[in-house]
C-alpha cells in the first residue's frame, strides 16, 4: 500500500517573505536615519538657525524622519 504526503512549504514561504520584507524596511529606515543625520550634521550653525533648528535637535529630527513618518 502506498501513501501520499503533502510536503509543500507554502506556510513557511509566507513567514520568510514577511521576515525579509521586515528586514528590508528596517534597513531602509536605518539608511534614512543615517542620511538625515549626516546631512543635517554637515550644516553650519547659521544654516541650522535659518531652518529654525539647533544642533541638539538633529538626532531627534532624524529619528522622526525615519521612524515616525
Distance between the termini: 60 Å
Question: Mean pLDDT score, rounded?
Answer: 89
What is the succession of H and E elements?
A: HHH
Categorize the overall geometry. rod-shaped
Give the beta-strand count. 0
Helix count from the secondary structure assignment: 3
What are the segments in which pLDDT stays under 50 over at least 5 consecutive residues?
none
Q: How would you sum up the major sheet? A: none
Secondary structure: helix percent: 55-70%
Specify Rg, calculated over alpha carbons: 22 Å
Q: Helix/strand-derived class?
A: mainly alpha
The percentage of residues in β strands lies in under 5%
Question: What quaternary form is this?
Answer: single chain
SSE inventory with pairings:
Blueprint: H1 10-41, H2 45-50, H3 58-67
Helix pairs in contact: 1-3
Organism: Salipiger bermudensis (strain DSM 26914 / JCM 13377 / KCTC 12554 / HTCC2601)
Protein name: YjiS-like domain-containing protein
Domain YjiS-like: 23-59
Amino acid at each position: 500500500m502506498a501513501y501520499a504526503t503533502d510536503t509543500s512549504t507554502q506556510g513557511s514561504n509566507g513567514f520568510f517573505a514577511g521576515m525579509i520584507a521586515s528586514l528590508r524596511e528596517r534597513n531602509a529606515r536605518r539608511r534614512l536615519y543615517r542620511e538625515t543625520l549626516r546631512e543635517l550634521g554637515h550644516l553650519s550653525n547659521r544654516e541650522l538657525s535659518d531652518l529654525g533648528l539647533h544642533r541638539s535637535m538633529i538626532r531627534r529630527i532624524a529619528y522622526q524622519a525615519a521612524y515616525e513618518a
